[in-house]
Records
---
Amino acid sequence: MINLIRQYPIALVGAVIIHAALIAAFFLHVDDEPKPVRMPVQVEVVAVQAQQYQAQLEQERQQQVVQKRAAEEKVAEKKVAEKKAAQKKAAWLKQQKRLADQKKKTLEAKKQRLAEQARDAKKEKQRVADEKQKQLKAEKEKKRLAQKKRKRLAAEKLKRDAANKRKAERRRRQNEMQRQVQQEEAAQKRASQQKTISRYIGKITQKIARKFRPPPGFKVGMSCVINVRILPGGEVDTVKIIKSSGDPRFDRSVETAVYKASPLPTPSDVVLFQEFRSVTMTFKPEK
């Protein structure tokens, strides 16, 4: 009922008016029976109103048709708009799906690329670690061989040093023994030479003593130190008083005795003779 009122308000008002008029005319006819009846005017009015009502109904019907058509057109437009919106949404969803698929593919490709890079990095890291381990092992082996070589060289050096030390010790001992032998031989030779020199000095002293003539005032115990230079063959070259006796006559007598004793007895050995080229001796006659 409420929907009918909302859809056809004018028709409803007209129907109410017509029914009210008919009811009024009925009551008026009952009350005024003696009076003359004027029905044609009222009927005419009602007829006019009915025509107006029909016209109004037609107008409302046409308006309703227009409104219905407009509503249908609006619904159609809405459907078209909804269809376009649905198509647009479908296209957008398709685009979004395509973008999502593309993004997914891109992400998967990136993920795969990152995974490959990670694998390559891991392989490279392992390769570097293996290479480093290999280098460390090689360096360790090199150090071990170097240390072994140093130990071997040190042992060889110790062995050489010990051998050289023993050799040097043997050489030192040999040299020491040789030196001792040489010293002993030299000492023996010097002793022999000294013995020979002493013997010849004794002969020279005896020969000078035989040629000595004590001067006046000579006393037993007088002596002087003389230096005699002798030429090869025993010839006296010079006589020099090194330490005087205190008596010039005694000193001159000793010089004269030396010259008279020339040639003096000297060894025939040339090397030994060098000891007699300059002889310093003390002359002390016994009488």
Note: The longest strand covers residues 236-243.
---
Amino acid sequence: MLGAENLLSRASLRWREDFNTSKSTACSGKTVGSSHRLMSICGSMTTSFASDDWVVDGLGQQTSIPGRIARATEVILIDMPLWMHYWLAAERQLAWATGKLEHAPGGITQMPPTQALFRTIWDVEQNWMPGIRNLCNEAQAQGKTVTYLVNVDDLDRFIRTI
């Protein structure tokens, strides 16, 4: 069983308090803004990856992805169409704005600005996902278990199995 210290959430790794996307230099020891929170989380990432058991929910730092995939024993890639990510994010934003959101992502307490959230979704799809897909395909070709979840039905089925 994994300890809570080894479960890292995408929202806590990707977003700073001001909801700007974090830059890859943050984990290299350089300060990005005055985000001590981000720096300490990046330190936790390094410590957690050094142990034998860890799970990362989400993206984290772009520069950490190749190493994480290389070290992982199993990869689960949620790779739905861009419009579906927008749809799900819009539903969550609406639920949050109306006080009906049951579980905030990554334990954050403030709703991210919708424009910044949508810009990040676009950026990830355009600039991150091609490389992530290639890394996952390579990992699978090398014998790693890679699960591709490409629609909501896949996601629902997967959730029922865990």
Note: Residues 4-161 form one domain.
---
Amino acid sequence: MLSKNQVTSAPTKTIETPPPPPPATTTKPPVITTTPTTVAQPTTTDKNTAVKTTTDNKAVVAADQEDLIAVEIQKLDANKASATTKTTATANYIVQLGVFKNHATADQFKAQLVMQGYEAKIKTTKKNLYRVWLGPYPTLAAAKDQQHALEENHIKSRISKEL
């Protein structure tokens, strides 16, 4: 038997424990910073206008293109001014060939003119009369030329401003 001061040891077993898992961390992906560079790349738009676009989406028009734009604006202004002049200065003329009380009679006369190669038209007046006429002609001279051609075919007419 063993005395009180004697200790017996039992065989020992070594148990290996796995290392603790690494601590949970929330790592952010690395931040990549770049310095924006302005790289102009020409693109073509309508009417062959070249526009340079920068990376910050601002359009920069080339200096020579600004001149072209100024020329286009001048052309538009000139067209607008001439259109205004045309509408105020142009008076159309017609050549009146006859006035009839009866639409059927006016239509027969128009048919005769069409057979001779004229593009006659009929217009009803406020007093329910039927005018047979040719035109409109942009100038008085053009209307007079037509009137002379009618006279050569023994057709009487008179010139007036457009109806």
Note: The first helix runs from residue 63 to 89.
